[in-house]
Automatic annotation (TrEMBL), chain A:
Keywords assigned: Membrane, Transmembrane, Transmembrane helix
Membrane-spanning intervals of the chain: 77-98
Protein name: Zinc-finger domain-containing protein
Domain of life (superkingdom): Bacteria
Automatic annotation (TrEMBL), chain B:
Source taxon at top rank: Bacteria
Family according to the record: Belongs to the sigma-70 factor family. ECF subfamily.
Taxonomic source organism: Rhodocytophaga aerolata
Protein name: Sigma-70 family RNA polymerase sigma factor
Bilayer-crossing regions: none
Record keyword S-adenosyl-L-methionine present: no
InterPro entries: RNA_pol_sigma-70-like (IPR039425), RNA_pol_sigma-70_dom (IPR014284), RNA_pol_sigma_r2 (IPR013325), RNA_pol_sigma_r3/r4-like (IPR013324), WH-like_DNA-bd_sf (IPR036388)
Keywords annotated in UniProt: DNA-binding, Sigma factor, Transcription, Transcription regulation
Amino acid sequence: MNKGLNYSEKLEAYIRNELTEKERLELEEQLRQDPLLQNELTLQKDIIASISDYRKNELKQRLNKIDVSSKSSPGDFTVGGAILGGIAIVGVAGFLIFKDSGKDLSSTQLSGAVSQMPVDSQHATNPSEVTSENTIALADTYDTADSNMPETVTSPANVNPAPKKTTPAKNTQTTIAPVVVEATQAIVEEEEIQKDDKLVLPESGVTKPAASAEPTLIIVDNNTSKYKLQYKYTNGQLFLYGFEKPYKIIDLPDQTQRFLLYDGKFYKLNRNQPQISPIQLVDDQQEIKALESYKSNNP
Amino acid sequence: MKDSEILARIRQGDEGALDYLYKKNYKMMTKMVINNSGTEDEAKDIYQDALIVFWQKAVSGNLVLSSKISTFIYSICQNLWRKELERKSKLSSEEKDSPEINDVDRRERIEIINNSINNLGETCRKILTYYYFDNLSMSDIAEKMGFANADTAKTKKYKCKKELDELIKSKYKASDFLD
């Protein structure tokens, strides 16, 4: 009997939601009638879960080897270096100015000297990151602001980027302008998330299937008491209001409809719903049956 | 490194980009857990789990970010930590009310599966983890593993899975499963 080998791939496709509706229903019928096939399905589920756990542990072991004891983030060195380098160059420039105070230096000569500062400081402080392209320096500076952003945001009293980081902006418009803009923008985004401690994002397992091209950010607001079990979509993000118990998002494999399972009931979510609206209860028995079946196969 | 660059690197399976993200956001992410009655170890664990969720979604190419990466990971951390707190609270009440449930059979099965995964060759292990966990396509697996094309990767994956199934089943009675 090679039923197992024949069915192995089918069961795998079933677990990964890759079967057509017809194939799925057929297989489910067979599963109901055949305990051995049911055993095989359980085994295949455990095998796939164990392979995933193996990889997860592998990645965790890798992360555990990373030294996080240093207080500075990867980007801090660059900025710290840029600041120190900047100070050093200002000092040297000042020394040269005062040294040659008898000479009449034009304003263009001065600004020219200072405007080179961030690039020079990069070269001076972090040779490993030096390239011939200014775009790399730009990216590093940009990123440094980024890495410091969340820390700033978690303290409500201090919502501006550290002034040190923006100081060089006065000297090099080309490199600093993106830093300021990006940092401000980032803070706004972060504040949106952090102004409510109960904002949550479901883990990946609940936003099936893998083929979804929709943004997966789901924001739950439990504190706005005037909205009970309501939702909206804004810029592709799903906002849920008044959900005080665990919920589950269900995307059917064909991507036609998104559902929400909450408190034992299924609700429909309309992706074109920009206004906060009550969620719509699924009352069609056939639809409920299909969702129950999908749910039981994707615990 | 810009978010777009990090994402692009992760999509190519560059684990170095994961290391970079880990170190970069470590303090902020663990702080959230520690400030919400978590220990340092729990904070680290939750952050690693969140980062792996992000990795899994990003590497499969199915992630469309509508926020900054750090915001996204932070939200996952919040959610995982909330779930962990719920789990702990549920566990403590269950301990009081009912005896611990031991699914010996399942634990034994998982142990057999894990041993069999460890007994697979390195190549097979990689192929299977890339396929089942990272959700890489056959052409991506072929590229990462240096195979000629996606068909070769598909054949290898099939053989590796079969080998694993057989290793596992060899440790059971023949009547336990379909053969």
